[in-house]
Request: fold
Amino acid sequence: MFTHKIRHFLLASTLCLVLSACGNDIKSDIILLDQAVTQSGMNDSAIQDLQKEVAAARSPEEFTQAAAKVRDQYQSYHQAINALDFKTDEVRGIRDELSTQSGDLISSLDEFVNLNIRSSVSYTPVQAERVHTTIARAENKIETSEKNTLQTLKKLQALGKDNGVDLQIQ
Reply:
C-alpha cells in the first residue's frame, strides 16, 4: 500500500535531479525542490527502512507503529516542500499538487493511526464496523493519492520534455 507511493516519490526525486541539468529557472527550482526533499530525510535509505518496517509488521499494533513512522516522514517532506518559493509557475504548480497529495496521504494515515487497533481485544459489532469503514476509507484515499501522484509525475515528465529532457515514468 505505501510501497507504490514511496516508489513514486523516489522517481519524482530522481526526475528532479535529471531536470537540474537543463540550465534555466526551471533548473534552479528543481534543484531547490530536490534539496528540500533531501533535507526532509526522504532518501533511499530512509524509504527502504520504512518499507522493511511495514513489511515486517506482524500485528495490528506493529503495523500502526510503522504507519505512524511513514506518516511522520511524509509530514516532514510535506512541510519542507511547502516552505519553498519558486521562480516558475510550472514547478510551483507541481509542488502544489505534490503537497496536496502528500497532505491527503498524511490525513489518511492519521485516520488509520488513530484507530487504536488492538489484536488481543474483541470488538463489539459497532466497533468492528467503525474499524473496517475507517480502514476502507483510508485505503481508498491512499489509492487516490497514489493515482494523483502518478498524474503529477507525468506532468513533470512533460515539463522535462518541453525543456529538452526525456523522462521515463512507469
Summary: The CA atoms of residues 40 and 77 lie 5 Å apart.
